[in-house]
Write a structure and sequence with these properties.
By secondary structure, the protein is mainly α. The protein has seven helices and no strands.
Length: 144
């Protein structure tokens, strides 16, 4: 039993499996529960998203663009993280989106818990990278 605890190989194996599970589960929930409907809702929804989010920060232009970027990051970027493809750039866009969403909820007196939890998890993924069970690793032969 002590050999298993001290052996680095099982530790790395389970660490990498844990990272894969984290990417898959968190990516799945962000993609299906928050992103997919926003992406397919179209420009009317994007204007609303952009005006709510960026308007709460005092930005009064580009609402269609910012709304689309929120929908893009919550859907396409979460899918990229699931696949482990362009993981750090995708995580970065999600972090920005969740930061704005969290601040929006704080400004309205609502709970920002969900947005800030996603922010922290994707920040961890941003720092760690996708791990060896990812397309990043397969394509670029590195752990990013």
């Amino acid at each position: 039993m002590i050999d298993f605890i001290l052996d680095k190989k099982p530790y790395q194996y389970w660490r990498n499996i844990g990272l894969l599970i984290l990417r898959l589960i968190v990516g799945y929930f962000l993609f299906f529960n928050h992103g997919l409907d926003k992406l397919f809702a179209g420009p009317e929804k994007w204007v609303k998203l952009g005006s709510l989010g960026m308007g709460s920060l005092g930005i009064s232009f580009g609402h269609v663009f910012f709304g689309f970027m929120a929908a893009f990051s919550e859907s396409i970027c979460s899918l990229l993280v699931i696949l482990g493809l362009f993981t750090r750039p995708a995580s970065f866009l999600i972090i920005l989106t969740m930061g704005v969403a969290g601040l929006f909820h704080v400004g309205r007196g609502e709970s920002p818990e969900s947005a800030f939890l996603y922010l922290v998890v994707y920040f961890a993924i941003f720092l760690i990278g996708a791990g060896p069970y990812s397309l990043d690793r397969i394509i670029w032969k590195k752990n990013s």
